[in-house]
Amino acid sequence: xxxxxxxxxxxxxxxxxxxxxxxxxxxxxxxxxxxxxxxxxxxxxxxxxxxxxxxxxxxxxxxxxxxxxxxxxxxxxxxxxxxxxxxxxxxxxxxxxxxxxxxxxxxxxxxxxxxxxxxxxxxxxxxxxxxxxxxxxxxxxxxxxxxxxxxxxxxxxxxxxxxxxxxxxxxxxxxxxxxxxxxxxxxxxxxxxxxxxxxxxxxxxxxxxxxxxxxxxxxxxxxxxxxxxxxxxxxxxxxxxxxxxxxxxxxxxxxxxxxxxxxxxxxxxxxxxxxxxxxxxxxxxxx
Amino acid sequence: xxxxxxxxxxxxxxxxxxxxxxxxxxxxxxxxxxxxxxxxxxxxxxxxxxxxxxxxxxxxxxxxxxxxxxxxxxxxxxxxxxxxxxxxxxxxxxxxxxxxxxxxxxxxxxxxxxxxxxxxxxxxxxxxxxxxxxxxxxxxxxxxxxxxxxxxxxxxxxxxxxxxxxxxxxxxxxxxxxxxxxxxxxxxxxxxxxxxxxxxxxxxxxxxxxxxxxxxxxxxxxxxxxxxxxxxxxxxxxxxxxxxxxxxxxxxxxxxxxxxxxxxxxxxxxxxxxxxxxxxxxxxxxxxxxxxxxxxxxxxxxxxxxxxxxxxxxxxxxxxxxxxxxxxxxxxxxxxxxxxxxxxxxxxxxxxxxxxxxxxxxxxxxxxxxxxxxxxxxxxxxxxxxxxxxxxxxxxxxxxxxxxxxxxxxxxxxxxxxxxxxxxxxxxxxxxxxxxxxxxxxxxxxxxxxxxxxxxxxxxxxxxxxxxxxxxxxxxxxxxxxxxxxxxxxxxxxxxxxxxxxxxxxxxxxxxxxxxxxxxxxxxxxxxxxxxxxxxxxxxxxxxxxxxxxxxxxxxxxxxxxxxxxxxxxxxxxxxxxxxxxxxxxxxxxxxxxxxxxxxxxxxxxxxxxxxxxxxxxxxxxxxxxxxxxxxxxxxxxxxxxxxxxxxxxxxxxxxxxxxxxxxxxxxxxxxxxxxxxxxxxxxxxxxxxxxxxxxxxxxxxxxxxxxxxxxxxxxxxxxxxxxxxxxxxxxxxxxxxxxxxxxxxxxxxxxxxxxxxxxxxxxxxxxxxxxxxxxxxxxxxxxxxxxxxxxxxxxxxxxxxxxxxxxxxxxxxxxxxxxxxxxxxxxxxxxxxxxxxxxxxxxxxxxxxxxxxxxxxxxxxxxxxxxxxxxxxxxxxxxxxxxxxxxxxxxxxxxxxxxxxxxxxxxxxxxxxxxxxxxxxxxxxxxxxxxxxxxxxxxxxxxxxxxxxxxxxx
Lengths: 287, 955
Known about the structure:
The structure holds 2 protein chains of 2 kinds.
Chain A (H helix, E strand, L loop, with lengths): L1 H17 L23 E2 L1 H15 L4 E3 L6 E6 L11 E5 L8 E5 L13 E6 L4 E5 L2 E8 L2 E3 L6 H4 E7 L5 E3 L12 E9 L1 H4 L16 E8 L5 E7 L13 E10 L6 E4 L6 E6 L5
Parallel strand pairs in A: 1-3, 5-8, 11-12, 14-16
Antiparallel strand pairs in A: 2-7, 3-4, 3-6, 4-5, 6-10, 7-8, 8-9, 12-13, 12-15, 13-14, 15-16, 15-17
Chain B lengths: L8 H8 L10 E8 L10 E4 L5 E3 L5 E5 L6 E8 L6 E7 L4 E9 L7 H4 L1 H4 L17 H4 L3 H8 L17 E4 L2 E2 L23 E4 L15 E4 L9 E9 L5 E8 L7 E12 L9 E13 L3 E9 L2 E4 L4 E2 H7 L7 E4 L2 E4 L2 E16 L4 E20 L3 E5 L5 E5 L3 H4 L8 H4 L7 H16 L3 E2 H13 L7 E21 L4 E22 L6 E2 L26 E2 L4 E22 L3 E18 L13 E2 L3 E15 L4 E12 L17 H5 L6 E13 L3 E26 L3 E26 L4 E14 L4 E5 L11 E6 L13 E11 L3 E11 L1 E2 L25 H7 L4 E2 L2 E14 L2 E10 L7 E5 L7 H9 L8 E4 L4 E9 L1
Parallel strand pairs in B: 1-7, 8-11, 19-25
Antiparallel strand pairs in B: 1-4, 2-3, 2-5, 5-6, 8-9, 10-11, 12-13, 12-49, 13-14, 14-15, 15-16, 15-17, 16-21, 17-21, 18-48, 19-20, 21-22, 22-26, 23-24, 26-27, 27-30, 28-29, 30-31, 31-32, 31-33, 33-34, 34-35, 35-36, 36-37, 37-38, 37-39, 38-41, 39-40, 41-42, 42-45, 43-44, 45-46, 46-49, 47-48
């Protein structure tokens, strides 16, 4: 009897050994993957924008460039940040972190892009199969949808917009309101010596960026340059986390992306987050 | 030799009067023992053939029958016990002679009884989303020969059949007389004592409200599991099983001493159930169980101490939409993905409880037994999830506190609508590009469709590099529970006719609920705020805080966050029952009274509910409940009996149905409805006819049950409030009435001594009977104008079917038992009339109204009726087969048991529910026009072929 019990126990022990299932502990994958190797001719953002302009000269305002096979790769630095919700399903790149000369907007069907394509990240874009044109007044890259540019599908993103290992420090381009022109669309700029219009900040009024009852989709607020008297609109999405920020009353500077409004007629500045509003104790000017 | 004397209170009375008394009455008595072990057998049926006289042996194996009512003559005494060969002995009744038959020896049939023994683990069920919805009346098969209940326990459980439409919150499971149903949801938590089948085979089942010595009872039936070392057959048992439904392997070993001469008895049992994947992908199963019991018996007193520890960890699956099912099949589970090459399930349920029970059994007199129990149970249950709401606090001199960040839903939900093809073709006229996107989404989903852990970790590592908090973490919703339960049960027989049972019980539960960070997924910390709070002005700026006393905390692994509250619950109850029996009638009358109390204590001060609205004690919720039941059985003759039972009782709402949103507020249902919350009133009548003969056993039942004034609390996200309002809501429905009408039939017919034919049938109609009141509460902006509370009048639920699984079931089967100790059985089981769970919210007037409160322009009643039609699932037929055999080698018994369910791999839906997201006319109409809805109903699909194979050794 006893020997049999031992045999049984032995068998049970063997079975118990084989009965291991995956424990509740998991290992983290490697932090730094290998550097992606993208093959192709390098094309600058500036060249890309020029290609759009050429196509438009030929075929009119709604013309789009469709990129053929083997066309090449565009390199850029991410200057938009959707973490605060002011940008939605779009990624804006400029060609240089310190001395940008051109910028491009890419439409991507994915949100929370900041988790991968963080601010300052150097990325490579595979142009093959994509299309570019002017949408909402700004050079836009995406997928051709009839006659407009649509967003790149989420399943394809990781192959088309490839991250490098580098995240650069971006220096915003210092401009005055008179410097504003189409060349600098989609670029991170700083406008100094500006203040919000009297209507919006003086007296009892203290408007928010985009949380006023009449704000639909975007809140538009007017900034006036103390130097030139020119105005520029600050546009903030009603879905931005910081839409409730009260407009500062003093004079200061704003750092944001230069873009156009939805209809593409008027220049706008769009903030990544409220740190772009640097309004210290500078007195208002009389404009 | 054992003298068998019967005392009557009347005898005593007559003695006092000085009357001559006859101390002796005609009786027949004896003791039943088992052949090999000489162990005294209790619960053996002893019955005088061709009469209605019968009894069961007591714990000493002894019986004594009063023959007073019988005319003089020769009679046959039949002794039967499941698992043993029966015996027949004759005796003579002559005047007042007392006949003692002496010792009766029964031979063990070692093939018998194994059929039912495996039921417990076969019913070891499903890994559905949220509450375990299985019903097990597992022990029924072993406990009695009711064919209908046997079929329900074994063959119907895979289809989520609920007997009489009642789920297991309406049934009681007891261990040694202590009700194990917890107060959270009223259900017995099997995972806290699972994996101990060897020592849980001694089960007694009573259906519905029929007579029960320990408890008033409940509609779905009452199972008492006796776990007393003295009652286990002595020996060693070792088994190994392989299966493919939930776990894939199980090893179990037990040693039971049986009652030793010294009066001691002890038992130990341990098992391990394991598997990396069951019938659903990614469902890991990792469970260990251990039980020890020790008992000391004296002549009239016994004391029993048992302990169980059953830690188990299981990966969960979820219900799927039709679209997902078509693309991926029924074993698809979106909850898992690869992390660094290993399969990791985001939804893991972990349960770890230690249970100890001390019981005393005291035969105060020969006819009165006092049984007391003290149960102490402590442990916790955790359910893990991914939190995609990780943010960073931004404080500038311009802005106050801002929270930036948050991950995207589709990263943590592989079946997020935006990754499925239906989303891209949802417009009325999709463009070619839409179709292209839909196609790509479809291909991608088929090829992949799982969670991308590496991407979540990459995002967190990316954040960490820039000094930001984690966006995604894994956390556990945790409930720690300490249970104390004490009771005293008295069972006294006045004489051979009357007996009385009484019970006093007290149960106290102290629960702690909180969320705990489990895994930072490569991140550095997580900001504890509500990402969805809209904090744009001074009034609302605190709403993002989960705990105002510790704002903007960055938490790490092991920290409690998001919510924390305690629930103190107690129930005190008393039960009284009296039974009467004579040769022609059995009757009983019973009642109970109970007091239930719940109180929540908030440990976090929630930003939406500052002050005492969430922090500190809630108002105490108290419910006083009562019940009465009565039944009568008329024994037509010794083969046939008819029986009728009626009862009415009230049931206090469970904790889950008392507090409307316990993670954020102290508010209870009574606070919201502005009046006392009612207990549910249940009224039931049933009639049965049973027939027992040597070849044929049959039982027919008819029943009618109503539930009145029930409460339900649901949680969901909707886009359909007042036209287009979007919110995450709590749906409080009160005054729900339901009606259950139906019949059951069970037949087993022994065609030949080796071949048995069996059939079971249940036809029911379970419907909602009224239009209950419904209100929504929410902290979302959509209900801001209404201060977060939106009453919606009533929900037109009348005549909709209750989603309790198939309401029509039928079985036909046979079982063959070969004299050479092997057996085989096959059943065909038909299930029909199973309905999808309807959205109550969709059936309020909100369905018809646009933003301004007027009906939608295009509202058409006929179309609305069609949109609100309840979905009925297709009927299906499942074939199940079982077989077994055993050998005897010297004193070792080796046995093999095999069961295959759904032999023909049928595809079927066991249940499902409507989505409340698009729950108004306009949105529902748009959905109905799409080829595939974007937010469709979700279904639970039954498993394909499942098998269970068990090899055991006993000696």
